[in-house]
């Protein structure tokens, strides 16, 4: 199963786990699997249409899914997925 790195602000939903496993062959399936295991996580990552929020970056093996196939990006069992909330400052 792919591993998913959970950012610190979302770890309260995963019981403080930094890395979890989630089933799926695409990012969309992995996010659905995460929601099943950790209710409430998906609404913080995806908008009401099911798209990854614009201020959340998702990477598969260090490649931004926005430059791949978005939520349809395929994943393999050995892949590492990172969820990275955007940080704003000034």
Key traits:
five-stranded mixed beta sheet, Ubiquitin-like (UB roll), 90 residues, alpha+beta, single chain, 5 strands, 2 helices
CATH architecture: Roll
Decide which structural class fits the backbone: alpha+beta
What can be said about the biggest beta sheet?
A: 5 strands, mixed
Strand percentage: 15-25%
The total count of strands amounts to: 5
Q: What is the element string, with H for helices and E for strands? A: EEHHEEE
**Cα separation of the termini:** 39 Å
Question: In words, what does this structure look like?
Answer:
The chain is α+β, with helices and mostly antiparallel strands. The chain has one domain: Ubiquitin-like (UB roll) (Roll). Helix content is 18%, strand content 21%. The chain contains 2 helices and 5 strands, in the order ββααβββ. It has helices at 27-37, 41-45; strands spanning 3-5, 19-21, 56-60, 63-64, 80-85. Strands 2-1-5-3-4 form a 5-stranded mixed beta sheet, with no helix packed on it. The longest helix is centred in the middle third of the chain and has 11 residues, at 27-37. It is globular and about 25 Å long. The model has no long low-confidence stretch (mean pLDDT 94).
Describe the secondary structure blueprint for this structure.
Elements: E1 3-5, E2 19-21, H1 27-37, H2 41-45, E3 56-60, E4 63-64, E5 80-85
Parallel strand pairs: 1-5
Antiparallel strand pairs: 1-2, 3-4, 3-5
């Amino acid at each position: 199963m792919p591993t998913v790195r959970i950012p610190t602000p979302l770890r309260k939903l995963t019981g403080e786990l930094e890395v979890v496993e989630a089933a799926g062959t695409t990012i969309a399936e992995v996010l659905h699997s995460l929601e099943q295991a950790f209710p409430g996580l998906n609404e913080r990552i995806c908008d009401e249409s099911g798209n990854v929020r614009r201020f959340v970056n998702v990477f598969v093996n260090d490649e931004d899914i926005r430059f791949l196939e978005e939520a349809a990006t395929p994943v393999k069992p050995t892949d590492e997925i990172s969820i990275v909330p955007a940080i704003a400052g000034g």
